[in-house]
Amino acid sequence: MDLITHPWPWYVAGPLIGLVVPALLILGNKTFGISSSLRHICAACIPANISFFKYDWKKESWNLFFVAGIVLGGFTAAQFLSANHPVNITAQTHTLLKQQGVKDFNGLLPKDIFSFDQLLTLRGFIFMVIGGFLVGFGTRYAGGCTSGHAIMGISNLQWPSLVATCCFMAGGFIMTWFILPYLLHL
Amino acid sequence: MRNIKYLFAGLLFGIVLVKSEVISWFRVQEMFRLQSFHMYGIIGSAIAVGMISVLIIKRFKIKTLSGEPIVIPDKKFNWGNVYGGLIFGLGWAITGACPGPLFAQIGSGFLVTSVTLLSAILGTWVYGLVREKLPQ
Any transmembrane segments, and where (chain B) (predicted)? Predict the structure, then answer.
């Protein structure tokens, strides 16, 4: 049981994630990609006569079942398969984040930033609301996210996906190294 | 009902995302600070397994469960891959989550990340609204 409740190492988790690619193809010719679900939600709930959202989203509803499954999987793992250890990040990152103002290291996310009472502070608003907006806008503009481009696209040797993945990483480095230290101190 | 199998696939994927701590903001910070191999190992080995699987599927012309030939559409390059990619990267480092982990974070009990998800949906919607004015 310990093997299950302990965090899984990369060489177990990575290959399992990679297997989602053939699993979806064989289950029904579906290409792995999660950010499309956000577009389908827009098309289903708030199409507002925008041409980008005028398509038959019901044909893509498998994707909505898939993301609903992810929510259930998150619940299952947290409720029944975890021992609630703090994330075992390296000492360097821990020290650096502490210096930059992060206080809570007990969960998967720092609760001093990600919580409902932080939502109305400038810092909380940036981390949750602005951050989320950038994720939704950027992935659609890029035509995919980590799953659709980095994993599915590169697996299928698509060079535009490699370009997109390099840009994901570049954006992440720019934020982490040059902007985040200021945001954390807000 | 034929979609239930995707719910189940998502469930297994969600479990892996939580158990490997991919959904942790801290792990994403570690990755972008180049201080740990964990996330690179996960993404790298996922790509390796995905690539081998796609090769096998193409080489042996494996079919879907219902017997159709498997077709994977090609991705065409446009400048959105670059600009959008950079924008998503900025967001990924702040929220510590790409879209998949966002769903798993909500399920694992961080209900506040549903605000992040709603905001991501809004971001997608605004993209749809302004896309014809953006360089592609």
Answer: 36-57, 77-94, 106-130
